[in-house]
Write a structure and sequence with these properties.
Number of strands: 13
Shape: globular
Oligomer: single chain
Number of helices: 9
Amino acid sequence: MEVPEFGVKLTPYANDRKLPSLQPGGELIVHRAGKRAVDCTSRGFVKHLRAGKSADVAAATTTMGALAEGAGFSVPRVLETTEHSVTLSTVPGRPLMELEQECWALAWDEWQAAWSRIVLSDVGGADDWQTHDAAAEAGVVGTWLANLREHDPGELAGRFADRLTEVEGGVHEALLSLDDRTQGTARNELVPAHRDLHDGQMLFDCANRRMGVLDFDTAVLADRELDLANLEVHIDLRVMQGLLSEDMALLARIAIAEASRVVGADARRMAVYREATRARLVCVYAFRPQWVPVAERLLDQLG
């Protein structure tokens, strides 16, 4: 069903011709029309994907999941793979944002120790991994900015056109400089990375002091600063949204700083990846009407 005057196309519930495995019956958690959906069933969580995507998702989940489990995390296991779907087991625990302060502190202690072990793991050759360098991250940010300019749901791109152009140029240049061998800033060693690590991907079983991590779809070898910066900026974002107190945010920042120290993260690279994360999140949250003012605040924070 289309509503031309609003530029909106409505799709039937749990129905998508590009995701043929999606059917009514489970509890629909996520549905990005034509791209992906997730529903909860009696067997576990089912990711519905476009044709040709499921094998890569299952492989990344298995490879990164094994590494994360070895480091001390609870992880989803691949139960079944079809041409259009991947079924995953559930992971015990509660979402981080639902934790009381005592459990929140324990969660970040456990996360810091286990995440450091992942980053410092010896993965041998890179045959089972895709790679994602700073130039690739610049491409991700550029794609999000292009999407924002094309659709501009909160009219942010129209109101801040010059500012977005300035930000895009600065972030692009800074990211490319990280791999510039003429400046001596390139780093040869890439490490296991989630590539979408934030509080929403983490669960904590307080009784068993066990942290769970979800969604390894985008797992790659990347700079060690990529995930750490993304996670830190998301903590700042939750404070801006009024979803997290400064006291609890401080505990998370301390854990992230300690993990950064243990894995040898570089301060300049952290700063660049923070800026890239903020630029991307400006675009992401501009598509969420209630959070457009937060997107504007993130834009204001960019250097």
